[in-house]
Amino acid sequence: MNKVNWNSELRKISRDFDGLPPEPSAEEVSAQQVADQRAQTLRQNRNAVLGVWARLLLVGLLSAGVLFWPYPRACGFGLYSYLGAGAAIVLGGLWAAIFGWRFHMSKVHVLALAMMLWGGILITAQVLPRTAYARDAATWRCAVR
Prior knowledge:
The chain is mainly alpha-helical. It has one domain (about 5-130). The chain contains four helices and no strands. The protein has helices spanning about 5-15, 25-65, 75-100, 105-125. Helix 2 runs antiparallel to helix 3, helix 2 runs parallel beside helix 4 (about 105-125) and helix 3 (about 75-100) packs antiparallel against helix 4 (about 105-125). The protein starts with 5 loop residues before the first helix and ends in an 18-residue tail after the last helix.
């Protein structure tokens, strides 16, 4: 005797009556899942690339902006904030370099390493004269008047 699955037959009739397309086959469902995963991977990669370039842009703006530092940096709070900005450049460059490496973006990685070097140079230029390395020693604190 031929057994008919009336639940599935009624579902097909109901879908047809409602004007809906027939239920997709297992192959169609599998192909749709693969296409959805591929599209999601492409979106994630595109977002990652934009994120890495945004990180590099932020660090680049800080690296360029520190050249126009508006405060005195000879001693005191101005010096400490300048050193903090240099440390932010180094850490931001490290941040961008890690993500550039992770997403195989060699140009971003090299630029981020260059920004890290620039931040290190900025810090070194202020620290070395204050550690008795230079002939004309500078001070960390401003003189009290």
